[in-house]
Design a protein that fits this description.
The structure is a single chain. With 267 residues, the protein is mostly helical. It has one domain. It has helices spanning 3-16, 23-34, 40-58, 60-73, 80-86, 88-109, 111-117, 121-137, 150-162, 170-180, 185-211, 219-245, 252-266. Helix 9 runs antiparallel to helix 10. The protein starts with a helix and ends with a helix.
Length: 267
């Protein structure tokens, strides 16, 4: 694969993974516009892995606390409710496990359907307009202090499952859902970003297992794309956290809607 095209895809992935404008949708559009023919879902998974690493770096302290709390309290089956009430990070670990279930189910049973959507530019255009509409509505949400609970984690998980559709922003849909539910902006952003880690890691492991030993796969562009996606993803996280806390999350809606209409008009 042309390394310049890999760099373009990686920068696109890193910048759009955390901005609420759909990284998968932009990868489809960039590939279509520049005639980039990358090896399907394989390159996409490795680009996502690069941004996975950026989340690990930015939220490393929170992730450590969540993992430690989970390991410490997981075996105390009779005290789950008490431990979740007394330990915020253990509660987060349980709610995250619950929230990843919908996306896991969708990914396993509807994989072929969603892979086909990556070839449908019109579907991306419609999905971008939907994403923009959702983001636009967040300007009327207030920065409340409600906590994440079982129901809220399920709803956020369903939002993440829908974001498998290219053009539906994962961060946009999960953070917007949290804002609609009255969850604190900083906490819902943390929940949204860390929530993606198990799914991306699992998808990377499965895809790596499928292509190990395949002579047709060139690992060099995969590695380059991963590194660039990591670097750009790191700075994109910083940007979106700043925008969210400043109450400017909804401004990305204009871009999504405009781009969606452009795609439908000129495709």
């Amino acid at each position: 694969m042309d390394y310049l095209k890999v760099i373009l895809l990686a920068i696109t992935q890193g910048l759009t993974e955390f901005l609420p404008i759909s990284s998968s949708g932009h990868l489809v559009l960039v590939s279509e516009i520049f005639g980039i023919k990358y090896p399907g879902i394989t390159m996409e998974v490795f680009l996502h892995f690069g941004t996975f690493l950026s989340v690990l770096v930015v939220f490393r302290k929170e992730i450590q606390k969540i993992l430690f709390a989970f390991i410490k309290n997981f075996w105390k089956l009779t005290n789950y409710r008490i431990n979740m009430k007394n330990d915020e990070y253990f509660a987060l670990s349980i709610y995250m496990l619950i929230a990843i279930i919908p996306a896991g189910i969708v990914g396993v049973f509807f994989k072929d359907f969603f892979e086909n959507l990556f070839q449908n530019v019109n579907a991306v255009g419609v999905a971008l307009i939907i994403t923009g509409t959702i983001l636009f509505l967040t300007q009327w949400t207030e920065n409340k202090t409600k906590k994440i609970n079982l129901l809220k984690s399920i709803l956020i998980g369903l939002a993440q499952a829908l974001a498998i559709i290219p053009g539906i922003s994962r961060s946009g849909s999960t953070i917007s859902t949290g804002l609609f539910l009255g969850i604190n902006k900083k906490k819902v952003a943390r929940f949204s970003f860390i929530l993606a880690l198990p799914l991306v890691f699992g998808a990377t492991i499965l895809e790596t297992k499928n292509i190990i030993g395949a002579s047709a796969i060139d690992w060099r562009p995969m590695l380059l794309g991963t590194i660039i996606a990591f670097i750009t993803g790191y700075y994109a996280i910083k940007w979106i956290l700043y925008s969210l806390l400043k109450g400017k999350f909804y401004i990305f809606s204009y871009y999504c809607v405009l781009l969606g209409f452009i795609v439908l008009t000129f495709n």
